[in-house]
Design goal:
Elements lengths: L1 H15 L2 H8 L3 H15 L4 E3 L4 E3 L1 H24 L8 E7 L4 H13 L3 E7 L13 E5 L8 E14 L1 H7 L12 E5 L24 E6 L2 H9 L4 E5 H9 L4 E3 L7 E8 L7 H13 L1
Parallel strand pairs: 3-4, 3-5, 7-8, 7-9
Antiparallel strand pairs: 1-2, 5-11, 6-9, 6-10, 6-11
């Protein structure tokens, strides 16, 4: 039990990056927290934190240890909920990694938080391909192909890509009549954060890795920025339908070449396999499956 207590203290310090904050949440003094961490480091024979007068940061060994400790604590929480007949309402911390998908996901998650106020969401928005198991996430929402066979997956839906621009842009520059005419237009391109490469527009007749005749009026790695640039009349952007749906309905954007854009993406939610799915995770999976 002493080992388990030390693990709980370590996880709290790692998440708050503060002995004082961890002590406040655990109801003990910061000096007691420091002694617990020192005992744990001595027992493990490694340093878990880089300490200075201004900050506390995980070492490489600490980062590895954190993921495993979070999984241990999550499994213990699941066991307690499974055995407890009084745990009728889902509650507790839920760590979820999500893609940078803009307002669509923000609204969805706000609805979930309102529906389940006792579930405390810890959200990591990133286009980095996180390791769900090693980094201690309860679930991830991903787009595209599913390559991690260790995980359980549920398909949420499919969304196509659209080429869009503001009416003011098309009034000034005209609408392209074919994909070949896109080279004469200002194009707003997306750089994939995980690879640093420009995302290819899903146009017909182009080789999968060949050059595309697109004039880059702007390049960025954020979908919301591309959307705002398109709304401002800066050029044509290739964006997922869910990101531009409201603007299209409001007449703030217009879609072009819809028959020539060939790509769709799939959303899925994934989580580590377990014989028993804790109520908080089950609620999350069911909620986003229904609303996406």
């Amino acid at each position: 039990m002493d080992n388990l207590s030390g693990i709980s203290v370590f996880v709290q310090v790692a998440e708050t990056r503060s002995f004082v904050a961890a002590g406040r949440q655990l109801g003990v003094s910061s000096s007691a927290i420091g002694k617990s961490i020192a005992r744990l480091e001595q027992r493990l024979g490694v340093r878990l934190f880089h300490r200075s007068t201004r900050s506390i940061n995980l070492t490489a060994e600490g980062t590895l240890f954190l993921g495993r400790c979070q999984r241990v604590l999550n499994e213990l929480e699941a066991a307690e909920l499974e055995l407890s007949s009084t745990s009728s309402e889902p509650r507790g911390k839920l760590r979820v990694s999500l893609p940078l998908a803009g307002q669509f996901l923000f609204s969805l998650l706000s609805g979930f938080a309102k529906r389940y106020p006792d579930i405390h969401l810890e959200l990591d928005f990133t286009d980095r391909l996180v390791d769900v198991v090693e980094e201690g996430f309860d679930a991830v929402v991903r787009t595209g192909a599913l390559n991690d066979s260790r995980l359980v997956a549920r398909r949420l839906g499919a969304f196509r890509f659209l080429l869009v621009g503001a009416p003011s842009y098309f009034e000034a520059h005209g609408q392209p009549a074919s994909a070949a005419e896109l080279g004469e237009h200002d194009c707003l391109l997306y750089r994939v954060p995980s690879t640093g490469k420009l995302e290819r527009w899903p146009l017909p007749g182009a080789a999968s890795n060949g050059p595309q005749n697109l004039h880059a009026a702007m390049v960025c790695n954020n979908i919301d920025m591309l959307l705002n640039a398109a709304l401002a009349g800066r050029g044509i952007a290739c964006l997922p339908e869910f990101a531009v749906k409201a603007a299209l309905e409001a007449g703030e954007l217009q879609a072009v070449l819809t028959e020539e854009v060939t790509r769709t993406i799939h959303f899925s939610v994934l989580w580590p396999p377990s014989r028993f799915i804790v109520p908080k995770l089950r609620c999350f999976v069911d909620f986003i499956s229904l609303h996406m």
